[in-house]
Write a structure and sequence with these properties.
Strand 3 (about 40-45) and strand 4 (about 55) form a beta hairpin. Helices cover about 20% and strands about 35% of the residues. It has helices at about 1-15, 120-135, and strands at about 20-25, 30-40, 40-45, 55, 60-65, 70-75, 90, 100-110, 140-145, 150-159. The protein has a six-stranded antiparallel sheet, with no helix packed on it. By secondary structure, it is α+β, with helices and mostly antiparallel strands. It has two helices and ten strands, in the order H-E-E-E-E-E-E-E-E-H-E-E.
């Protein structure tokens, strides 16, 4: 009887700590994880045997599959940028939303300043310039950091 209780306890403990979801990334990588939540364009999860909460950008994830019910939820579409004319497909992300994407290039330059244009218009023109540079190289994601001296630094990301 003790053996039966022990066996049942081990089976239930194994189910309780086993990984419940599978994350499929756009680069083809598959990760078995315990899904926690999806919030603010980030997916929170933990690895097997760990209580540490980790996160990944939703832009890096294709889909999340519940292994128990075999239910799949699409998270994001793959962004394909092949020419300069695809600049409108380039996504400008904040630095914290690039987790899980691969950093590939840095752009630096002077912010666009047009006479009579307000600061918001200048930011939009600078972002358009950076998106065009990024599209020319085939990078679908970019993060822009504007500096006080009228210059900017942009970091390009891929899957």
């Amino acid at each position: 009887m003790k053996t039966l209780y022990f066996t049942l306890a081990v089976l239930f403990a194994n189910v309780a700590i086993s990984q419940t979801h599978q994350i499929a990334k756009h680069n083809g990588e598959q990760m078995d994880v315990n899904f926690i939540k999806s919030e603010n364009d980030l997916i929170y999860y933990s690895l097997n045997g760990s209580a540490e909460e980790m996160k990944i950008s939703k832009y890096a994830v294709s889909q999340v599959t519940n292994k128990q019910t075999n239910q799949t939820q699409k998270v994001s579409d793959r962004v394909e940028v092949v020419s300069k004319s695809d600049y409108n497909k380039v996504q400008v992300l904040s630095q914290d939303k690039t987790v899980g994407l691969k950093k590939v290039a840095n752009f630096e330059g002077v912010s666009v300043k047009t006479k009579g244009e307000g600061p918001l218009g200048q930011q939009k023109q600078t972002a358009m310039l950076i998106k065009t540079k990024s599209a020319l190289k085939g990078y679908p994601f970019v993060s822009i950091v504007e500096k006080d001296n009228g210059k900017y630094e942009a970091v390009a990301y891929v899957y």
